[in-house]
C-alpha cells in the first residue's frame, strides 16, 4: 500500500498496524526544551505525524 505525506512524498507501507504502532509511540514523545524556535518545529512535526497517522488509519480501514 502507498501513502503520500503532506509534503507529497510517497511511502510504501508493508505493515500498516506495525507502522501505526511506531507512529503512535513517536507521538507520545514530549520534548522538554524551552527554546521558542524549537516549539514551532515541534508544532510542525506534530501536524505532520498526526496527518500521517490519520492516513495510516484510512489505509487500515480500506
Instruction: Count helical runs.
Output: 2
Low-confidence stretches: none
Largest sheet: 2 strands, antiparallel
* Quaternary state of the chains: single chain
Q: Which word captures the global form?
A: elongated
Return the domain count: 1
Output the structural class. Answer: mainly alpha
Main sheet: which strands, in order across?
Answer: 1-2
Mean pLDDT: 90
Quick one: how many beta strands?
2
H/E element sequence: EEHH
Residues in β-strands, percent: 5-15%
Compute the separation of the termini in Å.
11 Å
Indicate the topology.
Layout: E1 2-4, E2 10-12, H1 16-28, H2 36-60
Antiparallel strand pairs: 1-2
Helix pairs in contact: 1-2
Explained architecture:
- This protein is mainly alpha-helical.
- The chain has helices spanning 16-28, 36-60; strands spanning 2-4, 10-12.
- Strands 1-2 form a two-stranded antiparallel sheet.
- The mean pLDDT is 90.
Provide tags for this entry.
single chain; 62 residues; mainly alpha; two-stranded antiparallel ribbon; 2 strands
Concise structural overview:
This protein is mainly α.
